[in-house]
Amino acid sequence: MIQRPEKGGEFEYVKDVRDADSGDMNFEMAGKILDGEMPTKTLSMNAGDLVLFRGRNSMHQVTPVEGGIARILVVLAYNSEPGLSLSESARMTFFGRHSRP
């Protein structure tokens, strides 16, 4: 994390919700998590912290940021197959804009 917000911006997650390799999305468990029926774990980060997280099979989100200081972090992502890139929706999630033509 490069800059911590004044308030909020906590990283919430639940490990091993789905098995993307086999195509099992486990919508039942995901629904329970979204409905608050299953607890999430919370990770609070400070400026200068390094967190390694493999989110492919985990549900994760960041709580809303409050105050006048933005939450700024660096995300490193990779694919194990050459030539793959982020989808348009993933680019919007990470960068908040469409790719350039």
Largest sheet: spatial strand order:
3-2-4
Secondary-structure-derived class: alpha+beta
Query: In this structure, how is the largest beta sheet organized?
Result: 3 strands, antiparallel
Sum up the overall morphology in one term: globular
Order of helices and strands: EEHEEEH
> Oligomerization state of this entry?
single chain
What fraction, in percent, of the residue positions are helical? 10-25%
Number of strands: 5
By DSSP (H or I, 4+ residues per run), the number of helices equals 2
Task: Please report the distance between the alpha carbons of the first and last residues.
Answer: 30 Å
Strand content: 5-15%
| Poorly predicted spans | none
Taking all Cα atoms into account, the compactness measure Rg is: 15 Å
Average pLDDT taken over every residue: 89
